[in-house]
Amino acid sequence: MPDMTFPDVITAIHQRKSVRKYSDAAVPESVLDDLIYCATCAPTGNNRQPWRFVVINDPATLSACAEIIPAGKMLLSCKQAIVFCVEFENELLRFYGWLDASAAVENLLLAAQAHGIGGVWLGVAPRIERIKAISALLELPPNIEPMAVVALGFPAETATRKRKPKPAQIWKNRWGNP
Ligand SMILES: Cc1cc2nc3c(=O)[nH]c(=O)nc-3n(C[C@H](O)[C@H](O)[C@H](O)COP(=O)(O)O)c2cc1C
């Protein structure tokens, strides 16, 4: 992993924005490894750690993913994406797996921000047709399903935050109680 100083976590959270345009440079393997390790540091129900990862860096497979995810056209120009998958044995663990994998995606996006890498979460679950199409594309075994795809790259756009202001009021103990 390159020797670099990272911003603190609060700064990374405040600065993270979805990035959908990337330079031509690929993200180094060592950085991808660290991003995936950070993803696996997320909280997980019963410490099950059901997340599984498929890194895609083959242009034809990235293009095929872009066909499956209508708002995923940035996959046509990015050099790599990570498919967050979930391993599960029953329907309850499937839902828990989505929660666990969602926490892992956010960890990865924040870690990417800290590394100077841009990324965007592309929704797969709970859309059955996308789950089926990506499972077929990646030849996933029956007990593994894709939950999300994250496109990654060095940012070629400056995303500006348009988040709503902080909530005007936070209630205490009961809704409406200041
Ligand atoms: C479940 C989920 C699915 C998403 N799917 C897409 C997508 O298909 N395409 C896309 O460009 N962004 C997608 N996003 C990113 C959101 O559009 C983005 O997070 C939102 O607009 C807020 O912007 P920000 O991430 O820059 O704060 C998705 C985000 C989530 C959490």
Description:
- The chain is built from five helices and four strands; from the N terminus they run ααβαβαβαβ.
- It is α+β, with helices and mostly antiparallel strands and 178 residues long.
- Helix 1 (9-15) crosses helix 4 (91-115) and helix 3 runs antiparallel to helix 5.
- A four-stranded antiparallel sheet has the order 1-2-4-3, sandwiched between helices.
- The longest helix has 25 residues, at 91-115.
- The chain is globular, with a radius of gyration of 17 Å.
- The protein has a single domain (16-153), classed as NADH Oxidase (3-Layer(aba) Sandwich), CATH 3.40.109.
- Flavin mononucleotide is lined by residues 17-18, 20, 69, 71-72, 120-123, 159.
Q: What is the N-to-C order of secondary-structure elements (H for helix, E for strand)?
A: HHEHEHEHE
* pLDDT < 50 stretches: none
Largest sheet: 4 strands, antiparallel
What is the residue-averaged pLDDT?
95
Strand order of the largest sheet: 1-2-4-3
CATH topology: NADH Oxidase
Strand segment tally: 4
CATH top level label: Alpha Beta
Give me the secondary-structure topology.
Blueprint: H1 9-15, H2 29-39, E1 51-56, H3 59-68, E2 80-87, H4 91-115, E3 118-123, H5 128-138, E4 144-153
Antiparallel strand pairs: 1-2, 2-4, 3-4
Helix pairs in contact: 1-4, 2-4, 3-5
The protein binds flavin mononucleotide.
